[in-house]
Amino acid sequence: MQFVAYLNYDGNAEAAFDFYASCFGGKVTMRARYGDAPPEMPMPAEMRDKMMHVRLEVGDQVLMASDAMAPQCPYTPIKGCSVSIQLDSPEQAERIFHALAEGGTVQMPIQQTFWAARFGSLVDRYGVPWMINCPPAA
Predict the structure, then answer these.
(1) DSSP E strand boundaries for the chain
(2) Domain PhnB-like, which positions (predicted)?
């Protein structure tokens, strides 16, 4: 079993996933636009270039998303959860934290804590909450 986070965006999923690919060193492996849907599927003209499905792969990890299609599925900002990343080195944690924080809001600066070699939390420029964690050395 694998749990995969699926995020919803307010029309900027493609830009967000291109940004994440650069932050994490991953690759966007799928981009399906609403305009790619079959003709019998009703599609508002303003949604044709938006992402129906986008997939990012980083090693053996996957993150997926789409742009919310209003009015059927209106966008609501993420509340009450975060995407948590577990990293192997403090340097890697620092690099990814600072990359994601660019243009976003830092909630807790990345730092050593009693439970982690590095931990920090932020909301990125696209409104996604992240927790970056690097466990202490064994």
Answers:
(1) 6-9, 27-33, 51-58, 61-67, 83-86, 105-111, 118-123, 129-134
(2) 3-132
The 10s digit of each residue's pLDDT in 49-70 is 999 999 999 999 999 999 998 7
Whether the CA torsion 76, 77, 79, 84 is positive or negative: it is positive
Tell me: the pLDDT tens digits for 35-54?
Answer: 999 988 888 888 899 999 99
Q: How far apart (Å, rounded) are the C-alpha atoms in residues 121 and 78?
A: 14
pLDDT of 24 strictly over 80: yes
- Does residue 51 contact residue 65 with C-beta atoms inside 8 Å? yes
Neighbours of 95 (CB within 10 A): 17
Instruction: Count CB atoms within 10 A of the CB of residue 111.
Output: 13
**Global pTM value:** 0.93
Whether the CB-CB separation of 87 and 60 falls below 8 Å is answered with no
In b/e form, how buried is each residue of 116-136, taking b as 16+ CB within 10 angstroms? bbbbbbbbbbbbbbbbbbbee
Token readout for 20 is: 């994440």
Domains, the chain, ordered by start: 6-67 (3.30.720.100), 83-134 (3.10.180.10)
